[in-house]
Amino acid sequence: MDFKPNLHAKKERTIAVKHNQTTSFLWEGENVFSTPSMISEMEETCRLLLKEQFLSHKDWDSVGTLVNIKHLAATPVGAEITLIAEIIDIQERRILFKVLAKDKIDVIGEGEHERFVINIPRFKERFFQKVKKLNQ
User: Among 22, 41, 45, 71, which one carries the catalytic annotation?
Assistant: First the structure.
């Protein structure tokens, strides 16, 4: 595969916080955008950057391998979140991103996320070999 990502390539996307992306323990009713949901959206922004700009073939994608994220501010259901991913380091198929999430008032999260480019058929084959071994 000819994979040539560009250092400092960026992707920005906007989402609205949904009910299923909130905590449920702070108080009754709608709560705040949860840290796992924010991280998931950051990861997806990085994945989409790679898929849309560098991994167009269906047999190639990427998986997350590291997150180092700070959740800095609370955001309510319905608020729009802007997510920004930027490639800051490339080591063959290992890609490091700077990630940022913000609402209309605050930076709500920031940090780094690493992804590894995979060949889906090969990854799937190895995964099912592991499943088979675990079920013996």
Answer: 71
